[in-house]
Specification:
By secondary structure, the protein is an alpha/beta fold. Helix content is about 30%, strand content about 25%.
Amino acid sequence: MTETNHLFSQIRTAIRDDAAPFLKTPDGGVITYADMLVRSAGYANVLAASGVRPGDRVAVQVEKSAEALMLYLGTLRAGAVFLPLNTAYTPAEVDYFVSDARPTILVCDPGRHHALAQIADKVKAHVLTLAADGSGSLSTAAEGASPDFQDVSRGPDDLAAILYTSGTTGRSKGAMLTHENLASNARVLMDYWRFTSDDVLLHALPIFHTHGLFVASNITLLAGGSMLFLPKFDLDEVLRLMPQATTMMGVPTFYSRLLGSEAFTRKLAAHMRLFVSGSAPLSAEVHKAFSARTGHAILERYGMTETNMNTSNPYDGDRRPGTVGFPLPGVELRIAEPESGRGLPDGEVGVIEVRGPNVFKGYWQMPEKTATEFRADGFFITGDMGRIDERGYVSIVGRSKDLIITGGFNVYPAEVEAVIDEISGVAESAVIGVPHADFGEGVVAVVAPHVGVTLEAEGIIAPLAETLAKFKQPKRVYVLPELPRNTMGKIQKNVLREQYKDTFGAA
């Protein structure tokens, strides 16, 4: 029987034409599929020569580049576990991840070598460097390595990657993702979103995250398509390259910035067949404005680090604003009572639980935490609160940790935010609960206006009286120029809760 590397074997099988382009860089450079096989083999050879064995972790904190993507593929081929780290992490944060994952290799930008060398030394990891321009000790070695590599045998249940959660509610956890977790999700999404070898994906996402690394890249590879590979989201570059693309994946911020440009017209987007949004909630206002401007309804989907993608609005059919669509084929999804796990009927709000081949293997070296996050029947407790409507569409109403309990009543922030976002002049909002001596928690809204608009707190509170029950209405409204976000565009409610924790005095 021929040994296979489960995920990379499927990537290799999907190649229809070695000479077809895989990556196109903004400067006009082209990496073909044949080039991809050679360059990823070079990285795999260097890793193996550096002592990396099957199952070893390769930690990577480098800027986005074509070479960084080749390193990901080379790590797969070497049978190792890819561990991407946010480029914004400080050395102190990297210290935690390295100490926890104990990688054999730590790859960083040349400028970070000195700061990270002592951290790597604690776990006897070897430090290699890789710059966005292709320079560095690792890329130099890969350039001179053999273009051939015998892919290491890896099965469906072997680890392909570890991604650390953001850790906003405690110790950051390493989600263990298997070859089949990634492969199954990519296969389903390729079919569901109709990706083919004719597709050109405009890729402006970071690649230290599920969305940009696994969803975008793996789908393109399995479809045999190509990517316009931007180092980051640059509005002018996205506008320049869009006529060459057929698809785009982005976070809501991408789409709001496009709408803010007069150069973004229906004609410019005419060549596109699909815009996908994820990683943070897309406001109904942006959804509607985008459709009116371009004729395209943005397709919103729902996923998370531990599960890859769970649901998607349909390719054909209504892409309903404020929803994340239906469970993907092969994914089971239910709404449950958080404490007991009892299933709830459609229309009721509860915790979203999922089961399927996309769901991760567990948290790295945290068996007890893993056990508490799964029900006895194998459903993963996502921590996201949601409901399923009469048509089967799933809506996210917030994280369970974001639930506000005020005077004994439950307030779901997403419901209040949706009403506030409809108020003229409001660009976006975040609703949080902060300590309140009388009610336990008081509802607070933080809003950001559209550019050039002046908002007053009274103008936000007054319209809500007609739409929301009294206990749901914010007791205080703050106006900021913009809301704090992390690198994936998610509003950082933990930052806002800390900032406004003393709003109502000592609780």
